[in-house]
Each structure stands twice: as C-alpha cells, then as structure tokens.
UniProtKB/TrEMBL annotation:
This is Helix-turn-helix domain-containing protein. Keywords: DNA-binding. GO terms for molecular function: DNA-binding transcription factor activity; sequence-specific DNA binding. The keyword DNA-binding applies. Residues 142-240 form the HTH araC/xylS-type domain.
Amino acid sequence: MPVTSLGTVVAENAIRFLGHDTHEHDEPHLVYVVSGSARLTADGEEWRLGRNEALWLASRVPHALRIDPGGMALGPFLNLADQPRCRVQPLGVVPAIVEVMTTTLGAAPTTAEQVQPFRQALGRVLSGISRQYFPVVLPAHPAVRALAREALRTPSATLEQLAAQHRMSARQVQRVFLDETGLPFTRWRNRARMNAAVEHLRGGGELTAAARAAGYATRAGLLRALSRESGVPVSALTADAVGALG
C-alpha cells in the first residue's frame, strides 16, 4: 500500500487523502475538497480550492496538494478517456460533482470493482460539462498564457494591470491574443468566463451560483453577457438557460 507524504497508509483504491508531495499519475485525476480548504500546485501554478470545489487534472501533470488543518479532500482517478480539455481545468463548485462525491464518500468504496461505478458516474458528469460552448484557446506565448490564467482568476483586473505584472505592454498582449487566439483580450476573457458559467449550469447549478462562479457580480450581468455572445434572448435564458443554449 502506498504511503502519503503525511505518513498515512492509504489502500490502493482509496480516494480519500490528506495531502502529498509533487508527483504525477498515468490516469486523469480529480481533486475535490470535501471540507475546509486546500492549496494545489500543478504545472508550476498554484490554485486555492474551497469547500466543494473541484479541479480536473490531465494524465502526467505534476502536482502537489496541501490541505489546511481540519479539511478533507477526495482524489479519485478517472478513466483514461476522461481527459480535461486543458492540462489543469478548475471547475469550481459543480452540484452534480458534489452529489457524486458525497455519495462516494458515504459508500466508501475500497476495491477496484466498487470504485468503478463512481468513476463512470464522474466521467459522465465531466464529459457533459466540459464541452466549450464558446470556443477559446489559451495563447501559446508563455508569458501571455500565464497572464490569461491570471485574468480568469482575477476578473476585476484590467489588461493594463495584468500586462504590467507580466512586464509587457497592453499593446503587446493584445497583439499576441489576436495572433494566437483570433480574439481580442476582452472578448477572449468574456467568452472564457461564460464557459465557466455554462459548465456550472450543465452541472445542475442555478443562474446566481453560475454567475458567481464565473466572476459576474449579478445573475443579470451574466444573462446579458450570454445573450450578447450567443444571440439567445435574455427571457429564454432566464426560463431555461441550458435548454436555450442547446
């Protein structure tokens, strides 16, 4: 049986853990915080996860996790086909994932045979929410790629502020975004934020929570943004956002 960095012996198929040093897996991997908070480092970047938040890792992504005192996390492996669309995909709080993980925690599977139904259920949820409604790609330029990720974590930061933090000019950043993503920075960020909201809605969340997960101050602000980008009327989105977006 493997031993975690904190010295706790964990059965081969166990999904609960307390934290671990940098390592990687052949399978894709979900990190889900049951309670408290945790700090995950993946591909050289740090992510803070709160209660019920999840992060989806592709195969062979180096990562380390530290759970704050009193917290608990689950770390199930996924089937090989269940790869995220990028190496590290933060998901926020997705109600359908919370439901599967809560059921898993209660069932406490320990053998491969017992774990498999829960792994399949997670795969179905993840495949349903991970399709991008508004296609966006990360820039290839290393500094601008890091800036893009920072822009999604801090939606209130302006392009000028972000560019200065990465020792670039706003004009340079705009040029890279247009060349490598086909979109100006502001539209790229808006579409990426709306994708996060759509993922939340597809996972069973409601509009106010989806707006909050995507960094919008109000549900009305999210609805207006979705309507502008998709062409779907606000009234239709309010009645059934998932159905209206197809």
